[in-house]
Specification:
It contains 3 helices and 5 strands, in the order E-E-H-E-H-E-E-H. It has 124 residues and is α/β, with parallel strands linked by helices. It has one domain: Transcription Regulator spoIIAA. It has a 5-stranded mixed β-sheet, with helices on both faces. Strand 3, helix 2 and strand 4 form a beta-alpha-beta unit. Helix 1 runs parallel beside helix 2. The longest helix is centred in the first third of the chain and has 15 residues. The radius of gyration is 14 Å and the shape is globular.
């Protein structure tokens, strides 16, 4: 099974969405990073991002490099805020996962794309 991903923009909300599921080979990580950068070019400075890679599993050695490449590009393009979708814990709260990507002071978490949208819509 190859990478299952969907990357799209909402121009009205000035928002980028990224959902990746399944095993991530180096080639598909590169394709997803390229698509992320292509979509980000459609947005205005100050855009927001919601990512869901909670069900992604890297199988290549260079997937992390591709993620960092895309993150650096988002920073260069003027991303304002990022929401990471992560699984809920047994207590029902979204678990904190890792550190924010390099160059970003904070990354908020949500348990779904819809919750991430609601968080960003409230702060707009």
């Amino acid at each position: 099974m190859d990478l299952d991903y969907k990357i799209w923009t909402d121009l009205v909300k000035n928002r980028l969405y990224l959902v990746i599921k399944g095993p991530i080979s180096d080639e598909t990580a590169n394709a997803a990073a390229d698509k992320t950068m292509q979509e980000a070019k459609k947005l205005q400075t100050g855009f927001t991002v919601i990512t869901d890679i909670s069900q992604a599993h890297p199988i290549g050695s260079k997937g992390g490099i591709e993620i960092k490449r895309a993150q650096a590009f988002l920073g260069y393009m003027g991303v304002k805020r990022i929401i990471q979708v992560i699984p809920r814990s047994e207590s029902g709260a979204a678990q904190q996962q890792g550190n924010p990507p390099q160059g970003y002071s904070t990354v908020n978490t949500a348990s779904s794309i819809e919750e991430g949208d609601a968080i960003l819509d409230r702060s707009a």
